[in-house]
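Two quick folds needed for the group meeting slides. Do the first one here.
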Amino acid sequence: MELTLESALSSNGLLGHLSYVLLIVSMLSRTMFWLRVGVIGSAFAGIAYSLLIINDPVAVFWESLLLIVNLFQLVRLILAERSVFLSNEESEMVRNVFSGLTDLEARGLIDQSFWIDRQAGIELIREGNAVENLFYLNRGMAEVRSRDKIVGHCKPGELIGEGTILSSDRATGTVTLSANSRLWCIPAPVLRAYLKRSRSVRSIVDQRIGDALKSKLLASNIALSEAGGLTR
């Protein structure tokens, strides 16, 4: 095919454009599944264009190789997803605070952490200190104090310590369990290192932490107002 503006914008040329459009769109995907699907679609369009329009066997070979590799990787990904097992409390946690993660991504994050049972009165976070762990409260209750005034409560289904866990800033309040509790716990260095390695998980976790902070800030402002502010 002769390279002219007319040929580039022809119906035949558009098939070639489709291959690159699909490839670019796939690169914008946050999940590996849709990235693979996009590349496969791009390879199919590229094979059709190279075989039917420009009759280029070299391009057909490389597009076919790209197709085979990504089909293989997609099958591996699907099989890995199907083999993932999440317990009831793990599934509940993902729904509550990490929605958007695939089961495979959730499994990878959860495997960096552990579950603990703690009695009422245990202090999880101290005001003014660095936050050492991110917690998810599965059962129980926690009280949040700032300058010795109660500014909020953490109830089942919520994160604890998310405010500064990624920034390394010091805690703005003290969190103490007010009832016997079961928690999911991941140390701050482990969480930061894992999120650095997994861009798709980092995107979801950042978003969910932001959502949790907005909700808690609203509740905290209401509690502060009712308590007469933070003045001593």
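Then this one, please, same format:
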Amino acid sequence: MNTHHLTAALDLADRRVPVLPLRAGKVPFGNCPACKDNACGGRPNMKTPGPCDCPQPCHAWAAATTDPATITGPAWAPLWKQAGAVAYHPGGTGLTVVDLDHAAAVAWARRELPATRTVSTTRGEHWIYRGAMPSVNAVRDGVDIKSTMVYARWLGPGTGTMTTLPETVRALIVKEPSPVRPLTVAVPTGGGECRHRTPAYLERGIAMAEQRITEAASAVHATVYRTFLAVLSAHGRCGCLTDAHAARLFAAAQTKGETARHCTDAWSNARTALGM
């Protein structure tokens, strides 16, 4: 067992920093057989884990934990033998990492950003601020924002005093909204008895589903999956649900920041869960 990585993970967990092991190549361990191809519905939010209760660290950042019993338990113990590094979920402990990938990016940060705690990386630096925000890659050349719903590699405590997340960093992710991508999705053709006495019944159900997604303040992944599951359960077996209805739900999810791939996976997983 790699006691160095395990000791570091337990030390971080003791300080309420959620951690997980990384394998060689600085990537998470692959999904376990029960979760392969996201068949479990995913584990999109570590605080609101959704339908998956898998104890293994196979859902990347969402598996990060501060529970020492899990970290040293039977599901994780074999993985520490293979671990190449320790990762943590910055947003889970209220932090944001500005990942500067090369010397030019570091020079830009020194000119434009307030000083804070810094950690040297193999190619640049991590600048760590107190405060969480959405994570976005490539906000400019060589600059990634790592906070919520991502992991960052633990490279040591760093140097300097950690300061509050500045507006200059938050502003890096502000941009004009992208147009919603049109999608083709599989809609059940039905065959069962229609329970929709009027078209208004289905319309009201779709409108309520759109509203549920739009109003999600957190756990958007889980909300999208559960909403798709509810819509398909109520309207997916009689043939009334159309591509246009599904497109409305996908558009609502993408407006909340979901990718087209996640929408497709969530829809497919919901259909599978319902035996469609």
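Slide caption for protein two: The mean pLDDT is 84.
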